[in-house]
Amino acid sequence: MKKRVLSGMQPSGRLHLGNLLGALQNWVYLQDDYDCFYFVADWHALTTGYADTSAVAENTRNVLADWLAAGLDPERSTVFIQSMVKEHAELHLLLSMITPLGWLERVPTYKEKQDQIKDRDLGTYGFLGYPVLQSADILIYRPAFVPVGVDQLPHLEITREIARRFNHLYGGDVLPDPEGLLAKFPKVPGVDGRKMSKSYDNCLYLSDSPELNDKKIRTMMTDPARARRTDTGNPDVCPVFDLHKIFSSDDERSYCADGCKTAGIGCMDCKKVLITHVLALLEPIYTKRQEYIANPRLLEEIAVAGSRKASAAAAETMSAVRSAMKLP
């Protein structure tokens, strides 16, 4: 049997090129070799956005459409919505009873997010207990692997610690000790040169039309030293060239780099090479996405079917958990 992989994503807004290259493409590749469970983590969106929940449902539909358009296949993966599988909440409650407070306060992002997000009150149990819910999300499916980047390993470690504590308290190996499935995530610059992020509004979105993404790339910032066509430039400080490192061939990168350094080509010549590659990736996703958005009933059917399948797997775990804890 294939080993199981589990991962999820918050519906905090539209997905962009950074999400695609940083996680979603890898998820699609994993479908060939693993039993994959992928969920939209709509409850997690409430840990910081609890005061205004008006966009959660629409964002959830949009994320699901993005996933399917990018290649997640409901026939090969279990694709579902977190809040439609109530066992997540039950295991979260039980794990919260055994998780030491100090473990949660030591999670690196706990204080970081409190420092970064000043416009919301994050002094809530939901925010502090986020890692317990995340642990429940993972452990409920007893996966062998969780796809992560190196910087996310500390977040997975608390899940492993909670699983070990549960097994120590109640005996046996009821909950697994999942390993990180390391992937190298490329740093994707936004159109303003900073990291691509919804917070900066500098993204190439999967939901943007090809015409809009073409326009965004054409107006991307480049080396500020190239004020005129005849000025020489430095590809090492150019966000456009950073995207060339991801998309373009060696020959194309050499052409653009040499042309930039010698003023042999203009910035628009360089951008046109990049546009060809980016649109070749994004345009089919956009077209397929439009089909899903136009058919909300199909999206609902996929979500319901996936959530039923996930719930059946989660129920098996909860039966083992209740038995270990000697609960009725």
Helix content class: 40-55%
Q: Which CATH class of the largest domain is shown?
A: Alpha Beta
Order of helices and strands: EHEHHEHHHHHEHEHHHHH
Kindly provide the radius of gyration, computed on alpha-carbon positions and rounded to a whole number of angstroms: 22 Å
CATH superfamily of the largest domain: HUPs
Question: Structural class of the secondary elements?
Answer: mainly alpha
Rounded mean pLDDT score: 94
**What's the total number of strands?**
5
Strand content: 5-15%
Major beta sheet, strand line-up: 1-2-3
Note the main attributes of this structure:
14 helices; Tyrosyl-Transfer RNA Synthetase; Rossmann fold; 2 domains; 8% strand; two-stranded parallel sheet; mainly alpha; 328 residues; 5 strands; 3-stranded parallel β-sheet
Give the SSE map:
Elements: E1 4-9, H1 17-30, E2 35-40, H2 46-49, H3 56-70, E3 77-81, H4 87-96, H5 101-105, H6 108-116, H7 125-128, H8 130-139, E4 145-148, H9 153-170, E5 179-182, H10 210-218, H11 239-247, H12 250-262, H13 267-293, H14 296-325
Parallel strand pairs: 1-2, 2-3, 4-5
Q: Can you give a write-up of this model?
A:
- With 328 residues, the protein is mainly alpha-helical.
- It folds into 2 domains: 215 residues, 3-Layer(aba) Sandwich (Rossmann fold); 82 residues, Tyrosyl-Transfer RNA Synthetase.
- It contains 14 helices and 5 strands.
- The strands form 2 sheets. It has a 3-stranded parallel beta sheet with strand order 1-2-3. Strands 4-5 form a two-stranded parallel ribbon.
- Strand 4, helix 9 and strand 5 form a beta-alpha-beta unit.
- Helix 4 packs parallel to helix 14.
- The model has no long low-confidence stretch (mean pLDDT 94).
